[in-house]
Every structure is written in structure tokens, then in C-alpha cells.
Specification:
Elements: E1 3-7, E2 10-12, E3 18-25, E4 33-39, E5 46-52, E6 57-59, E7 67-72, E8 77-82, E9 91-98, E10 108-109, E11 113-117
Parallel strand pairs: 2-11
Antiparallel strand pairs: 1-3, 3-8, 4-5, 4-9, 5-6, 7-8, 9-10, 9-11
């Protein structure tokens, strides 16, 4: 059983920065790829960034150059550093983990954390 718990959301002004964290528990096998999805009101959930246990990463085009994903395998944690935030980054951000490769969606989800970018 894998549990994912996000933290770090909140309100930030446009151009600001924020760091999200996700703490995982459970099988290391199930945590091969960890990542972040987001869902804005009225929109589908979308993949933001992922990282494998080996350090390979993927970013959505909309966040390339602004967001950085990282992980601490020993602590079973994944992080999302978000810089130059825009109002369109406003969404609920979900941590996700699974055993398959990049761009695959794992079965394990966190409860989500709200990120609001507004002046």
C-alpha cells in the first residue's frame, strides 16, 4: 500500500516561487516514477513533471524552464520547485507514483494541494 502526502501549497503572487513536497510510504518498486499532476477548475488533470528513481525527468511544455522536479530516494520524497509562477499555474497539484516509466500514470495519488497564483 502506497500513501502520498503533499505539502507546500498556498497563495503566491505572479512571478513568485513555491516549493511542493510529497512524502511517500510503501514499496520502493511502486515508487519508480514519481511526479506531479495538476487540475484547474473545469479542466482535465494534466501531467506537469515526473522523475524516475534513476533521475530521468519529463516536463510539460508549459512549465519547462520554470519548474524543477527532484527526489530524495532515501527519504522517499519528491519535490517540485516552481519559479516564475503565472496565474495559469493555479490548480490543485497532485502527487503521483507508479512502477512504470516516464509519462505513465501510476495508481497512487495524494490528496492534492491548492496552488493559487494571484495578485
Amino acid at each position: 500500500q502506497v500513501q502520498l502526502v503533499e505539502s507546500g501549497g498556498g497563495l503566491v503572487q505572479p512571478g513568485g516561487s513555491m516549493r511542493l513536497s510529497c512524502a511517500a510510504s510503501g514499496s520502493i518498486f511502486a515508487l519508480y516514477v514519481m511526479g506531479w499532476y495538476r487540475q484547474a477548475p473545469g479542466k482535465q488533470r494534466e501531467l506537469v513533471a515526473q522523475i524516475t528513481r534513476d533521475g530521468n525527468s519529463y516536463y510539460a511544455d508549459s512549465v519547462k524552464g520554470r519548474f524543477t522536479i527532484s527526489r530524495d530516494n532515501r527519504k522517499k520524497m519528491v519535490f517540485l520547485q516552481m519559479n516564475s509562477l503565472k496565474p495559469e499555474d493555479t490548480a490543485v497539484y497532485f502527487c503521483n507514483a507508479g512502477p512504470a516509466g516516464l509519462r505513465s500514470t501510476g495508481d497512487n495519488w495524494g490528496q492534492g494541494t491548492q496552488v493559487t497564483v494571484s495578485s
